[in-house]
Design a protein that fits this description.
This protein is mainly β. The protein contains one helix and seven strands; from the N terminus they run ββαβββββ. The longest helix has 4 residues. The chain is globular and about 40 Å long. The structure holds zinc ion. The site of zinc ion has 8 residues, from helix 1.
Length: 100
C-alpha cells in the first residue's frame, strides 16, 4: 500500500489516489486567508458545495484558496461529499512539494 503524507505537517495520512496532496484534518483547521485570518471550510448545505468563511466575523471568504502554515492550498468539494483541501504548487497545479 502506498504511503501518503500530509503536505503541511508530513504526518502519515490515509492514502487517497484521487487526492495525492490532500491536507490532514488537523492542518485543515489552520487554514488562513491571504491576510492571515482563520478560515472555516464547510459544506455549503446537505447537497454539497463548499463554503468558506472567516472564523472571526463569520463573513464569507470568496476564494477557495487558503494558506496553511504558509503553503498555498485549495479547498474543494470532495467527490463523495465533505471537503478536501489540497496543497498547490506555485504554478497552480497540485503536485508533491519538495522536501525542506
Ligand atoms: Zn497535516
Amino acid at each position: 500500500m502506498p504511503k501518503q503524507h500530509c503536505p503541511v505537517c508530513q504526518n502519515s495520512i490515509t492514502p487517497v489516489a484521487r487526492y495525492p496532496n490532500y491536507v490532514c484534518a488537523e492542518c485543515a483547521t489552520l487554514a488562513e486567508s491571504a491576510d492571515g485570518r482563520l478560515v472555516e471550510i464547510t459544506n455549503a448545505n446537505i447537497w454539497g458545495g463548499i463554503q468558506l468563511r472567516y472564523r472571526d466575523t463569520g463573513e464569507p471568504h470568496e476564494e477557495t484558496q487558503v494558506f496553511i502554515r504558509g503553503i498555498k492550498c485549495e479547498a474543494r468539494e470532495a467527490r463523495f461529499g465533505g471537503v478536501v483541501i489540497q496543497a498547490l504548487a506555485s504554478d497552480g497545479r497540485a503536485r508533491p512539494l519538495p522536501e525542506h
